[in-house]
Design goal:
Distance between the termini of chain A: 6 Å
Radius of gyration of chain A: 17 Å
Largest sheet of chain A: none
Oligomer: homodimer
CATH topology of chain A: Globin-like
CATH architecture of chain A: Orthogonal Bundle
Number of strands of chain A: 0
Largest interface: A-B, 46 and 46 residues
Chain lengths: 173, 173
C-alpha cells in the first residue's frame, strides 16, 4: 500500500526532499513573526471572501481570527520558531485536526491558489523562501488529501454496512 | 466539546505546560543522538518481549528495528534535533499514523510503564530531562487515546448503520 507521503508526493508533484527543504535554513529567524502573521491574515482574508460558496463553507464554523492564529502558530513552530502551536493546543496532529473538513483534490488546489496569491503579495518574504514554502504547502495539502481518504474508507464501510467487526487497516506498510 | 488536548491533560494528569516543558531546553543538544537510539531500543526490547500477548500483538505487524527508528527519529525531531522523521516520512501526523492500533487507556498505561522502565535504565539521561520526557510521553499517550476515540465514533456509526450521510463532527470546537 502506498504511504501517506508517497501519495502526497505523487499528487502534489513535489518530492519529499523539496517539501522539507524548509528545514535547510531557519525561516522563522530569516523572516520574523510578523511575516507569518501577515501571510496568514492575507491568506484567510482571501479564503473568507472566496466567491465559491463550496470552498468558503468549509471554513464557516471557524472564526477567521482563530483560523489565522492556528495557521501562523503552526507555520512558526514548523519553520524554526518557538513551539507556539503546541504550547497552546498540543500536537499539530495535522490529519486528525482536518478530519471535520472535506479535504478533496479540488479543495487542496483552491487552498493552494489562495496561498500562492497571498505569497505573491508578501513583500516581506524573499523569492527563495517563497519557493520553499510553496513546495512545503503543496506537499502538505496533498498529504492531507491522502489523510482524508482514510476517513472515506470508513465512510464506504458505513455505506456497505458489512464491516461491523472489520479490523482497521494500517495507513502505512 | 472537549478538545484533544483537554482530554489528554485530564486523562494523563499532566498539564499542557508541563507536557511541553521539553521545549524549555534543547534536549537533543543536551543528550545527543545516541541517548535517543538507546532509549528507543531499550523500550522496544521490552515491548516485543512483553509477557502480555494483547499488548505485544499490537506491534506484531511492524519490524522491531523499524519501530525503533520511527520512534527515535520522531523524538529527535520533536526535541530540538534535525527533522530526521519528516525528511524520511513526512509529517508526524501522530493520530493518523496510530490509526491502525487500538490505543486504549489500558494500552497507554502499559506503553508508559515500559517507557518508564526504559528511562529508569538510561544512565545517559539526567533526572531532570527524564521527568520532562515522561510528562511529554504521558500527555502524548493520552492525546493518542483521545485521537483513538474519533475512530471509535465512526465504528459506532458503522454498527448502528444509521448514518450513511452523517456529517463528520469536528474534533475541536
Amino acid at each position: 500500500m502506498q504511504s501517506l507521503q508517497e501519495k502526497a508526493s505523487q499528487w502534489s508533484g513535489v518530492h519529499q526532499a523539496d517539501a522539507f527543504a524548509i528545514d535547510e535554513t531557519n525561516l522563522f529567524e530569516k523572516l520574523g513573526l510578523q511575516s507569518f502573521i501577515n501571510l496568514s491574515t492575507n491568506f484567510y482574508n482571501r479564503v473568507y471572501d472566496d466567491e465559491e460558496e463550496w470552498f468558503r463553507s468549509i471554513f464557516a464554523n471557524s472564526k477567521k481570527e482563530d483560523a489565522i492564529q492556528n495557521q501562523y502558530e503552526f507555520f512558526v513552530q514548523r519553520m524554526g520558531g518557538p513551539p507556539m502551536y503546541s504550547q497552546r493546543r498540543g500536537h499539530p496532529a495535522l490529519i486528525a485536526r482536518h478530519r471535520p473538513f472535506p479535504v478533496t483534490h479540488q479543495a487542496a488546489e483552491r487552498w493552494l491558489q489562495h496561498m500562492q496569491n497571498a505569497l505573491d503579495e508578501s513583500s516581506d518574504i524573499d523569492p527563495e523562501s517563497k519557493i520553499k514554502m510553496m513546495n512545503f504547502f503543496r506537499h502538505t495539502a496533498f498529504f492531507l488529501v491522502a489523510g482524508d481518504e482514510l476517513k472515506n474508507q470508513n465512510k464506504q464501510h458505513q455505506v456497505g454496512c458489512k464491516c461491523k467487526h472489520a479490523a482497521e487497516k494500517p495507513a502505512e506498510e
